[in-house]
Amino acid sequence: MVIFIGGMFKSGTSLARKFIGNHRDIFSGLESNWFELDQYFNNTNKDIGFKIKVWSAFFKIEEDFIKKIIYSSSSSEEVIDKMMNYLVEINNLKYWVDKSPPNIYYSNRIFNYWNNAKIIHIIRDPLDVFMSCKEAKKWDNPILFVDTWAKIFSNLKKPRENKNFLEIRYENMILNQNKTLEKIYSFCELDWEEEFSYHNKDTSEYLLVKEVTGKESTTLKRLSQPITKERIGIGKKHLLNTEINEIENLLKLNNLYNEYSNALWK
Q1: Residue 35 sits in a domain of what CATH number?
Q2: What is the pTM of this model?
Q3: What is the arithmetic mean of pLDDT over 45-51?
Q4: Range(s) of the domain holding residue 59
Q5: How far is the C-alpha of 190 from the C-alpha of 99, rounded, in Å?
Q6: Contacts of 112 by beta carbon, 8 Å cutoff, 6+ apart
Q7: Would you put residue 26 in left (φ > 0), alpha (ψ -120 to 50) or beta?
Q8: pLDDT recorded at residue 119
Q9: How many domains does the chain have?
Q10: What is the mean pLDDT of the chain?
């Protein structure tokens, strides 16, 4: 069994990954963005040096070993499968989870390659997501935000028909933590113990990403702090009405207003 977590950026995918990674049988690391290797396999960009450097640091694997995996593979899926299975083996584990937000966009590819895959889509109130994006200075205007949000939510019909596709609210992970995590664990066919809901306030991932990429992850910085419900509702509290109206009008143009309305936290 393999597990993929995804969703719109700033939606709680990293938190879900940490909770699932608490299980004794799971390998869970920083996001791989495995699909970025498509450019290599499509011959549009053969420069994979930075990707190899990042993976080597994130997953503690020798760069030469990662190169061998890539050179002996014929697709991005084959690369991440080989690498993750290797990490499972050397760490004496059983399963692996990959958390990369765009995994939802690639759901059909995932199901085609891994017939036993479990995909978890984390959904958060889109106004709260946009507010978090503004704070992080990413996708921080309505046009960029809607364009990115639409890529995740416009291709959900087929994945939702698959019994191995689960949608979870970020808000429920915060407000109904144990019940929600137990649902996730059951979906993944993992035994559940309350200790798996423990949140380790660790700065190591934040510092590693900053060192390797030169970028500060506001997500990982928050994950090094206590989990609170204070982040729920920040959009309605702080966004301008003009911003909200522009987002809603753009989503109507993209025929995604119903998805947006359903995603709002009531």
Answers
A1: 3.40.50.300
A2: 0.96
A3: 91
A4: 2-263
A5: 17
A6: none
A7: beta
A8: 98
A9: 1
A10: 96
